[in-house]
Amino acid sequence: MMTVNYLECSREHFIFIRPKTVMGDTITIKDVARELGIHHVTVSRALRNTGAVKEETRVLIKKKALELGYKPNRLARDFRNKRSNVLAVVVPDLRPYFFSKFVSDFMETAKEAGYSVMIFQSGEKPGMEKDIIDSLIGYRVAGVVASVTKDTVQESHFDLLKEEGIPYVFFDRAPEETQASQVLVDNFKGAYDAVTAMIASGKKRIAYISTHYRHQIFRDRLAGYKQALRDHKIEISPDWIIEGGFFMKDGMEHAKQLMQLEHCPDGILAVRDEIAIGVIKYLKTSAYSIPEDIAVIGFDNDPMGIACEPELTTVQQSIPCMVGNSFELLLQQIKQSTILFDKKIIEPKIIYRGTV
Amino acid sequence: MMTVNYLECSREHFIFIRPKTVMGDTITIKDVARELGIHHVTVSRALRNTGAVKEETRVLIKKKALELGYKPNRLARDFRNKRSNVLAVVVPDLRPYFFSKFVSDFMETAKEAGYSVMIFQSGEKPGMEKDIIDSLIGYRVAGVVASVTKDTVQESHFDLLKEEGIPYVFFDRAPEETQASQVLVDNFKGAYDAVTAMIASGKKRIAYISTHYRHQIFRDRLAGYKQALRDHKIEISPDWIIEGGFFMKDGMEHAKQLMQLEHCPDGILAVRDEIAIGVIKYLKTSAYSIPEDIAVIGFDNDPMGIACEPELTTVQQSIPCMVGNSFELLLQQIKQSTILFDKKIIEPKIIYRGTV
């Protein structure tokens, strides 16, 4: 008795069809364990992707479970079916403008379509993120939209959702090894275009300030920065690449460090607007003129960039576009009772103001 | 059989003791309906405070339900008891710095004490807020912290929590007619002190810019503004009191309107930092010097106030203090299985920077 079908099309378009008809529906973890002569705790671990189970055992267990038609968490799924108008959004931190705006706008979009939204903050902690995902089953959610922590590399804790047939979409930050639906920004291009804009305005010594995060999106921005310099035959200096911090004060410190170099930059790209504003504050107190002496570009299009003077030029990641795509991808899966693995890439756009 | 006891001490200290022992526990809405000869739908509406039920009928039904020992939502409560480490936070909007920071900090405080937090945004809509509160029962939450919408006057939709013995605490914005636990800011004093600070620096014509919200907290600020002027024998001019808008652009427009008056102000108090920054932007483009020609003060201590120049003087509502008090009030009730009606008032503080 097969209750699950996989139709693999391509890496980025992989369809999981939720079973429509259930026969018997009484296969438990113990049945699977008995069939294989393996302890039921091991079976449970393998099916939940928790704890240490040898890979070949895990494959064997999953194959047998599929063959027997094992369906986990029936009670939880029944609850979910009773309340299918709730969506969950999971973000690492609600304080940055990007996330609070995404969450708020997503809620409005969902509400117009008759869904309510519950929001969770993982605090950049993978353990917390896992607890949240585990709890979502009990909350009977119809779908999940998530941006993972900076340290989430694997997505095994999202498998529980997949097992329950609950669709999910990653936005902005996805685990590095995932086939799940995702809506990402072309971060490489964002940084590449920003550096190119500074070069076009005559700058030749361009520095890069990142946060301390090692997540893919920051690695992509760094790669875009380097590629733009290479393509314009401009030297890449390790002194001009600085990492660490998240706030205005970090930008101030980093700018000071850069401007004290013997060979100091004439352009600075920062991966967050708040850091870029710190850079501007330091430069102004040190009597540099912006953009004449030095150009500055940030990322995010945070309204804070309009408060400073000159107003900050920034790389915008269109939040309405990310919200729209995330919601559409999720809704499509909910309505079709299908889990799709699709990827949307949002083009970033430079918003020119006064710092280039 | 009485299962609920009320001990009324004073308006601000009203204790509701959750029943510890349950006898029988089989009284249903239909039993209450039969006893009174009223249709069970009416009884359900009256006990849930939903739909139209005549006030005297509602009182009669509630009295009878109490007398019979009716206890609603037993299934939901059982669930809740199984998962008592989840708290809910309900806010009108996650975008303003004040709310996103409160929610994020509350989550961290709760996490340290072993609680996880789910977050809801009512979008300033009382109907949405009601739906959220209704849903919290099913999510087995141990307690709720809420800041209500600008239009929430009554708190009847929170009664469901009370009926379930789920404690709740209002922070920043509470319904006007409530006896529930609350952590509020002394908004009257915040505005009073801000105006006094401007007067102390030599200003004599002080204007006030509010949002379009008619909530108590904005009325209190307006009252504080007026009282400070009265106490210093300074004229209150209706031309200098402007309402409407929430953002920087609104501040810019209002500042323009004020500065075009024949008798224009030399000090402006805005109820949000973002509005105050708009005021500063307009004044600078019109070549006014700040604070020499005109002083500006905002509310919230939004980091955006440090991005602008001069840096904004602001009335701070201590978020760590609000988070700490809200959490403590909630935890006390959860641990004691008691619903307390207690009120904490947080003293605001002026953060002096460059605009006074």
UniProtKB/TrEMBL annotation, chains A, B:
**What PROSITE patterns does UniProt report for this protein, alphabetically?**
HTH_LACI_2
Q: What is this protein called?
A: LacI family transcriptional regulator
Q: Cross-referenced SUPFAM superfamilies, in alphabetical order? A: lambda repressor-like DNA-binding domains (SSF47413), Periplasmic binding protein-like I (SSF53822)
HTH lacI-type domain boundaries:
27-81
Whether Transport counts among this entry's keywords is no
The entry's keywords: DNA-binding, Transcription, Transcription regulation
Q: Which Gene3D superfamilies match?
A: 3.40.50.2300, lambda repressor-like DNA-binding domains
Q: Does the keyword RNA-binding apply?
A: no
Instruction: Tell me which species this is from.
Output: Flagellimonas spongiicola
Q: Which InterPro entries would you find in this protein's record? A: HTH_LacI, LacI/GalR-like_sensor, Lambda_DNA-bd_dom_sf, Peripla_BP_I
